[in-house]
Amino acid sequence: MTSSREKILSSVKANQPALKPLPQLELPVDVNLDPVENFTLIATNIGSRVFPVSSFDEIKEAIAKLFLPGRIVSSFTELADIAEIRLTDPDPHSLNDVNLAVLQAELGVAENGALWLPEDKMMQRILPFICQHLALVVSKKDIVRNMHEAYQILGNRNPGFGAFIAGPSKTADIEQSLVLGAHGPRSMTVFLID
Amino acid sequence: MTVGLFIPCYVDQFYPQAGIATLQLLEKLGVDVVYPSRQTCCGQPMANSGFSHLTQECDDLITENFAGFDYVVVPSGSCALHIKDHLHSEKHPDDAKILRTRVYELVEFMTDILKVKDLKARFPHKVGVHQSCHGLRGLHLSQMSELVAPPFSKPEQLLNMVEGIELISLNRVDECCGFGGTFCVAEEAVSSKMGKDRVADHIHNGAEYITGADLSCLMHMEGILRRQKSNVKVMHIAEILNSL
Amino acid sequence: MKDHAALSEEFNIDEPRVNWHDETLWFIRQKRDRMAHGIPEWEWLRETASQIKNNVLSNLSAYLEQFEINALANGITVHWAADAKEHNEIIHSILKKHQVERMVKSKSMLTEECHLNDYLTENGIEVIDSDLGERIVQLGKEHPSHIVLPCIHKKKEEIGELFHKYLGTAEGESDPQVLTEAARQHLRDTFLTRRVALTGVNFAVAETGEFVVCTNEGNADMGVHLSEVHIASMGIEKIIPERKHLGVFLRLLTRSATGQPITTYSSHFKSPRPGQEMHIVLVDNGRSRQLGREDFRNSLKCIRCGSCMNTCPVYRRSGGHSYHSVISGPIGSILAPNLDMKEFADLPFASTLCGSCSNVCPVKIDIHDQLYKWRQVLVKEGYVSNVKSVSIKTMTWVLSFPALFAFAGKSGRWVMKTLPFLVNNKLNPWYKSREMPVPPKESFREWYAKNRGSK
Question: What is the value of pTM for the model shown?
């Protein structure tokens, strides 16, 4: 008896049409578009709060103002005085009470307000999803125009898991009414650092 | 230039005035028009119902009647599209092939072949344009609202040459009226609802007349308007372009 | 079993509700338009996506093998399922191996197609759908009526009643904010207590062996990262060649689907986290057969955005359940006959062939042309006689046409006798809400003979 694998592959092979070429991915880039300005606009539209900052002191001040007291976790040593910067318990369930996670995004995408967060900057895979509020810090120079540029920079790098995150968790499943805070973070804050 | 005039079966039977307007309009524009009398139907009602294998006689008749004309003009986007896309004849395969390239819906024939720049017509009324799906998405008589592409509208280009006309805008510029050939009886509930909604959009925006390049859609909307005892009328675009 | 026409007729009894359904979906179509028009290269994107998918279909066997090699190297266990039954058995065996009787699942139309929930429930396994819309239809013991918006057919008051009954919200509470918060609490508890999580797959990259799951709610990630076992079910057509192609598809997917620039989460799974197991189940279930149907194979390009449903004037006025198929709307109508021509013979006729679906499709599937082609196939294969509405109301008309040609050249009112919607008879469905055209004094043919006859 042939396995399903062989069965599927031979059926696919028998039925697929003659090879068609892959298209080129060259597209004109709108050079007039300012990535940071556009990122801010779109990210705000999708429910993120965007703050340009020049230092971690400013980030700390903003955090004190924006969030109620609660457990803060961060991968930034600069935030050691306000956040846990090392996770001792490897069990992801232990992060259920995190109020705020502050993490570093590798890049941001102007056209959709998304930020790329790879696993090695997540501390734990669950963290950016389970926290009540998420703040991502990204360098202004790391804002790219669109997804093509994003993948050009990322190449095939993926430490095991990574995600584009665009705004707070949301749903519109009930009569198309937008509600922020479905299962993941209720808010998304982006700190654009010089 | 000699043009063969194809008058769709239901236009012949129910809307002869649209056929007459088409003929007179083309004659006014200096075209030599012939109406071959042995024509019947383009075969679309059958083909769209899944019976394209039964349309051979239709196709043969069209081919025999219209081979040899410089152009074939049809005052119906839907029938024109069907001939363009599907005409084939085992008896006269080459004639059918050539014919498919020579078939034009009336509006596109006027804008693209005759390149009409002005018309002596007057129609002092508020008019809503119904973009029939086959004319729109099949023949590209206008830009389709789904695409990211520059807007244009061949019917409106011609209507704008008519003195006194006021074209109204719609909330949904190119939604289907729900006729759909056999769909109108096979799926009566949805078809009627679509028709009612389309008509309501025109009425809401102040139309006195609804026009378009396809009488099948207009016939559907007229049926609804008359049931609602509305004063709004439907009129084929040829009649407006031919009115004085 | 009732066909699309009968089910739509029922849906249309409550006209204000039809208006509400139509307008809700039209609103999403408009959001999609605004998003598309914000991207000047939109049509280039669609064309590129279409070509990439054409390439995928033409080289699918090689891409599947390449994906398998890379996924295995990444530490993912790869399974192959020829049909729905095998898919369900594989999932069940994984659950059994881990002695797990409860599972959380994020959106996966494939598991709906395979009727996984029913199968697992029969085998004593509880499945909780974590997407809010899917959870709502699950509580209501229904099926999704839309692939992206599973409970778009339900009013918030009806959802409020379900939540009152099952989740303990206050009676009469229907505020979406409050209901969503209740679901958040209820499902968070589920996420925290389930050891196995199943997700769908939006894209799988042959080149890297990773797969991408897109959600707005974060429910896929909440389930997966808290679980010991992640199972991902994917149709074999979800493969894309290279990672950079994700750029094209992620730009198109959500703009087309909901009019957002991208989903909140686009999660790229490459390998399990330490201590976790990651399984991927590659499912055929008729796809390789569809690949062999030249006229219909490109339906496999579908990325499940649902834009064809939102734009479809019939779908908006008949509701997803009228399609009595897991995937409803125009795309469902060209996919379903591949699975069962007899059961779904009515669906290709549930369309006016207006073509709007093909124009919004981000991968340029010629949906309305395929609807037309399915009609020809279904008639030839003899399935249309099973469809009451099409056969009785339409066939008489259609079949009577060839007899007409004998009259060609005569000017008799044959149209009146043959086009059924023009028969002045109260049993004629046309007449239900439409008047008949008024026959003129003379036909065009007669007028022409009189006025131009000598020509």
Answer: 0.94
